Structures
1.
Amino acid sequence: MIDLGISKLALIGAVALIVIGPEKLPRVARTVGALLGKAQRYVSDVKAEVSRSMELEELKKMKDSVESAARDVETSVQSGASDFEKSWSEATAGLDGATYGSDSSEAMGSIGSSLYPVYKHPKKNWRIKQNATPQWFKARTGVRTRTQSGAARVARFRPRSSSVPR
């Protein structure tokens, strides 16, 4: 870079004052400052573009490595799945004398129903129990017995305006 000290800047300013003149010097200084600002913005834009292109190259390399890793995982999962299917079919071959694959759902359903109990919800008759509560108890505890729309609920609890003239 150019080494500009205070003495060199003073010398440049004195020569500019003599050559340009005191009347035109402020306008020339503004023009030079604007041109230097534009040059700095251009240089910073070029630097940003170069750094973006370098980051883009790095991202492409990372994308390729991730894709290759995903392909490796996919092949290992597929090979593991085929091994699992083989071992599963060997393990389940002796159950009730039925042999079934992954697509035979009827054999699986019949075996599954004989091996496991059917799920029964513990509160099967909840409607009957709820209706057995007396109305006076519901009224005392504040249980709602009738549905009401949102607008009706707002209108019901809205304070009434007083009809006192001003």
2.
Amino acid sequence: MRSPIQPASLRQFILLSFFLALIPLAVLLWQSNSALSDVSRFAVAEAESSVDSVKRAENMQNLVIDIERAVRQFGILRTDSLSRLATTHLMNYQQMLQQVCLDLDAPLLCQAQAAQVTTLLQNFLHASNEELSPTLLTLRQQQQQLTEQIWQRLEQRLQTQQNFVVDAQNQLAWQSVTLVVLTLLLVLWAQARIASPIKQLDTMIRSIGQASHHFPHEQVVGPRELTELGEQLRWLASRLQQLEALRLILLRHASHELKTPLSSIREGCALLSEQLVGPLNAQQMEVVTLLNGSADRLSQLTEQLLDYNRLLQQAKPEFSWHDSTQLLDSCFADHALSLQQRQQFIQLDCQLPRIYTDAMLFRRILDNLINNAQAYGGEGSPVWVILRPHEKFMLLDVANNGTPIPAELRAKLFEPFQRGKAPRFDAVQGSGLGLSIVSDCARLLGGMAEIVDVNYADVCIRVRLPMVEE
């Protein structure tokens, strides 16, 4: 059953993933803008308040000077205009003092200053300048203290503003980290929801490419396109298994069914060639010779098919110790006639007296490699056979002179029914199974086969097998 939050298609899932990943980023942008707006409003308000406080402090400082000048002038001239001027200055100062004291945390100083202003309002009309001098001096000194208090208050508000900015920065940093982590988690979640079915598809594809076809039974869970692709791969795997079974049946039955009529054809051709059923003219002998060659070629192809079929059915090799020279010489003896026909010879370099292997599989490898070197090698040239140790492996090199194999075709030649472009110099047309049998035998023995470049030959096929010491 499909998950309720699982989108129907891959495109919808990708769009949903992008949308979910953008949500934390959008929240981060909104929070950043909000924090910047708060800091800006707070900074503007504090700046305006600071400017007002500074202006008020300067005005009060100037007003104290004006009060002292007006009071002293009145004490000398005693005019109504100076009386009104001094009273106006004192009243203005009293109002400004009330506004300043609302923001300052200095009640005693404010009360003392207010008392000095009230005393001046009551006494400057009757008292002399000498009597008012102490009051004016106290008023001027307390105003200086008020100015200092205002500047301290400004410093405190400036520090508060700095702390506010730092707190906003820290909060924004933590929010950014949190939202980035959340975005990363959402991206990882989306990646996992897409990577999981893709990994399942990769497992299916790899299982299809394996010979055993251990196909996974789990259904692909994910977007619709990937689920449908998984079902198609499942169908493809089933179809390939059916074709593989049919291929094995065809190889087994066709190879065996061909041997009986082929034997009859070869026996008939032998009777005709020996003229046991009557004399033949030259044209008839030529036809019989062609029939013999075709029968031999069909016999070789049938034997290769049987050999390949037996190799596919062989499950586990049987290892034992064997004498290397004896194993190699018995193989060379079987190929002596074909090598002699093209004036070729074996140049052997055996550095391992005994090897631990499956004799039948090793012989199949050597037979196919020598047959390949004899068929594609130059006439009168040697066939190099080298068996030597290398680290924890033993290397079997079979090399010949002839047409070099291009690098892009080397891996492909080890696949079944794949043939190179170089011409064969024997009478048999290749079936494309020789190197495939070599590769499969090497794999059964725990090794591998490859085409390498050497300085003494044009073509060299190397089989790397595990080596066991006695």
3.
Amino acid sequence: MRCKYGTEVGHFWVQINIQGARYGVALDAIPSQFCVGELEATIVEAFENEQPDVIIIEGQGALSHPAFSSSAFILRGSCANGVVLQHAPARQHRCDFKKMPMPSPASEIHLIETFSDTRVIGLTINHENMSDADVTDAISQYEQDLHIPVTDALKRSPDHLVEIVVAAFPYLKAKTLTAA
């Protein structure tokens, strides 16, 4: 798949939802001691077979979520150069954990960047129970507070998400410009 900059993008899923992608790992079905290695092997296979400029790895959960420990495997197994975090501002509590308040994006970013050798390059808004005005306000507030780009990948143009990645890795745009 090619993005608007002409950059070749490899894409695969981790977790249970691996439909629609050539490469995937159902981490929930793998014994924990093998998760990192299985993910790493799949990434290497995808890279060797496809030679993409970017590999996008989709997963679920968060490091601080008690029910999704596979997030740790995703970060360690992928050795990601960048992470786009998703946050649901209107949620008061973790889903299925009514006594656990939702963490702030700042605390999740700190945890991710402390746990792995990566950086959070952007934030997407999960707009459940939010109006368009609420989403716009949240985007502005989080950009100001966190100093990273923020978008809603479903309510805003998908180009914003691509721009987040290209802004974090400018060689992708430069590579495209020199190839043109």
4.
Amino acid sequence: MEYEVVMGLEVHVELATKTKIFCSCSTEFGGEANSHICPGCSGMPGALPVMNKQVVEYGIAAALVTNSHINQYCTFDKKSYFYPDLACSYQITQLYHPICVNGSVEIETSEGKKSIGLKQIHMEEDAGKLKHDPFTDNSLVDYNRSSMPLLEIVSKPDFRSAEEVVAYLEKLRSMLKFIGVSDCKMQEGSMRADINLSVRPMGSTKLGVRAEMKNMNSLKSITRAIEYETARHIDLIESGNAHKLKQETRRWDDTAGKTFAMRSKENAQDYRYFPNPDLPPIVISDEWIERVRQSLPELPEAKLQRYISELGLSEADSRLLTSSKVLCDLLDDAVANGISAKTAANWITGDVMNLARSDGKIADDIVISSHKLTQLILLVEKNVINRNTGKKVLAEVYANDIDPEQYVKDHGLAMVSDKGAIEEMVKQVLDSNPKVVDDYKSGKKQAMGYLFGQVMKQAKGKADTKLINEILQALLNT
């Protein structure tokens, strides 16, 4: 029998606000345990929540880019559950009137394009974090993360493969980063996904027993977990043990390559939702929505088409550039300062990305001044330094944030462009290497590379390469 996997995702995105959702504590990542807390986010009796307006604006922005309907009247609710890292024994979230519903995100996989439906997006607070100490056999609680602002993006059960899940998460991450809603750093937990998975016979319309894999924050781990959990469901069904499948929450162990049962899966009635009397309803006006809409930057898909049609870049370069807001910002700044798109793209997708890879970083983690990169490219374009010297200066800009113009001056790296001086160096090299000259004249064209290298050596790598080639060819062919 053939089987079909059916999945829905709950994606938690930590918002890029400076302060928490219901208090003024810092949202900065890291810090000593329990150093970013106050009576409100640590659950002290009598402390009341105050709504962070920026969270609402980020919710509106997320709704606009996911084609969602914005509920212009939305409210907050209390969701009760009893974990040590939840100070109040309830979470402030949205159930009855979330900020937006009925959205969609278009993805593209090897099977083609597909629209993933969204049930809703709602605002809520995060819980704290338990830290388990195996040496003392104790568990400690850090409330720094408590009341961090989240958007929970709840999809419909539209996924049928791990490839679709990964494509969806990458698309969400790209859109939300571009509009500045979140940094979506999965390794820091600012974007994580709960995977709800069930298996049914192909062609059936009845959903199977659902298992939820919690707090997944690695695309590679998500793929492995989906593959394992799908196989586990099918094995139990085919071995006649389908009754052993339970609606439960499971934990993925990346080292073991398996999921393990954590607890039975709660239903809405288990959480005892009720309206939060401490927070008034939020009324979102048409003007507010329009103001947020006007503030949105150009999105990745629009940039992709513009880079190809207006800037004349290849589709491959355009896709690489639009995969990261950092790369797009570098390109856009360079083009705005008069550098050709192709030249800027070559530097960014080639030299800058090579430095990042050698540093073990992905594009989104690159930290380099777009102004200084533009300065450097212009130094090469204006023949102040040659391309090889430019690469060395770029490495210094990347590693030490130096000023490229001052660095070139201080280290005497300006290019030798005097035709007479270069011609004199070429003649000296030809006189010193008669055999190589004879090899070239007898048809060994690779000898030109050796002679070019010797001239560059004499010039200490600072000569105009185009001029060297012209003079070499003129003298060798006389």
